[in-house]
Write a structure and sequence with these properties.
It is built from 2 helices and no strands. By secondary structure, the protein is mostly helical. The longest helix is centred in the first third of the chain and has 31 residues. It is elongated and about 50 Å long. The two termini are 18 Å apart.
Length: 70
Amino acid sequence: MFDTENLKKMHKELTELKLQERRVSCDIRTLVKANRMIDFYQAKKLNVQRQGLKSEIKNVESKITPNIIA
């Protein structure tokens, strides 16, 4: 189905996406902890970005290990 080169690229992409998602989640936690007055626009923007990254992660994971019903 996939050659090893494509599989390596997809694993690398998955790792990078997970790292980006962790950074955004950390930014959200920092924003909430640091400010008594939360910038809701910035928090919403970060949350939308995080949700997009989660969606991309699921897409790449499904390509690497497809759901096969036997």
